[in-house]
Design a protein that fits this description.
Catalyzes the conversion of epoxyqueuosine (oQ) to queuosine (Q), which is a hypermodified base found in the wobble positions of tRNA(Asp), tRNA(Asn), tRNA(His) and tRNA(Tyr). [4Fe-4S] cluster 2 binds at residues 196, 212, 239, 242. The protein has 308 residues and is an alpha+beta fold. It has two domains: 4-86 and 96-172, 3-Layer(aba) Sandwich (NADH Oxidase); 191-251 and 262-307, no CATH class. It has eleven helices and ten strands. The radius of gyration is 20 Å and the shape is globular.
Length: 308
């Protein structure tokens, strides 16, 4: 007879698939021993730039039981966002994850549905859903749960599907069967390191966040430092270079989440369209989009930095 832990684990993974998640892996909720010194060193070297929030809740980032009392399991989930169509060639570029509806909303709804399913099917289970908006080390948990390995560009990579997916978690007070990590498959490849326009990957597996195009175009509130002029490769929101050149992303297949489909006007916008964008168009095209994080003025700043 199947034990309760095994039965619940199977139930959860089956439901995750039904909800459209690419995959689901589970880890024991415990202190992230290996990550602690790495995170401390990264912060001490100021690789987080102006992202002050990275310094907050150091202990919570490493210990899920401080986020969810009495938690036993971290359920990690991947959701594909690889688009079937990309922007026109002569355009300023947006990271593919920002084409459609802001992923925070899409995933939050799916996670809430999964938590309710667990409570309906299994009983009194307490937990919280996390979509990169709380101090949770998503990639570390996903790797620990066997969903992939951390590549040299510091993103999670999975053999069959590459890396164009979101990572999210449910931290719950229910004991389950735990998965084991997989081995890494980057080998001697340095494609991501060689291709990074701003040399933000300072050594394999270490990204200086304060040099990353995504940081400059989204997180940085003041002016972009002039020494990075000419190095942005036309990116105005985020950057996909390290993922685009990764050989594992040959296996990426288009998502089937209608909410991630881009606004019809977005894919055909030329550089001129971007340069002439009005606040009205911005609000219409990016109504529910993650691009709203830069606000209209931030996007204009990014476009002008490339144009001038």
């Amino acid at each position: 007879m199947m034990g309760a832990k095994s039965k619940y684990t199977k139930l959860i993974k089956t439901e995750a698939k039904r909800l459209g998640f690419l995959s689901c892996g589970i880890s024991k909720a415990e202190f992230l021993e290996e990550e602690a010194p790495r995170l401390e060193k990264w912060l001490n070297q100021n690789m987080h730039g102006e992202m002050q929030y990275m310094e907050n809740h150091f202990d919570k980032r490493l210990d899920p039981t401080k986020l969810v009392e009495d938690s036993k399991s971290v359920v990690s989930l991947l959701l594909n966002y690889f688009p079937s169509q990309e922007q026109t060639a002569n355009s300023y570029k947006l990271s593919k994850y920002a084409y459609g509806t802001d992923y925070h909303f899409v995933i939050k709804d799916k996670l809430t549905a999964l938590l309710h399913f667990i409570q309906d099917e299994i009983g009194e289970v307490h937990g919280r859903a996390f979509v990169d908006s709380a101090p949770v080390l998503d990639k570390a948990w996903a790797a620990k749960s066997g969903l992939g390995w951390i590549g040299k560009h510091s993103n999670l990579l999975t053999q069959q599907v590459g890396s164009f997916y979101f990572i999210a978690e449910l931290i719950i007070d229910l004991e389950l069967e735990y998965d084991t990590p997989v081995t890494g498959h980057c080998g001697t490849c340095t494609a991501c390191i060689d291709a990074c326009p701003t040399e933000a990957i300072t050594e394999p597996y270490v990204v200086d966040g304060s040099k990353c195009i995504s940081y400059f175009t989204i997180e940085l509130k003041e002016n972009i430092p002039s020494e990075f002029k000419g190095k942005f490769d036309d990116w105005i929101f985020g950057c996909d270079v390290c993922q685009d050149v990764c050989p594992w992303n040959r296996f990426s297949k288009p998502h089937n989440e209608p909410l991630f489909n881009p606004h019809p006007e977005l894919l055909s916008m030329s550089k001129q369209d971007w340069e002439e964008i009005t606040e009205e168009t911005f609000r219409k095209v990016f109504k529910n989009s993650a691009v709203k994080r830069t606000k209209f003025n931030g996007l204009k700043r990014n476009i002008n930095f490339l144009k001038d």
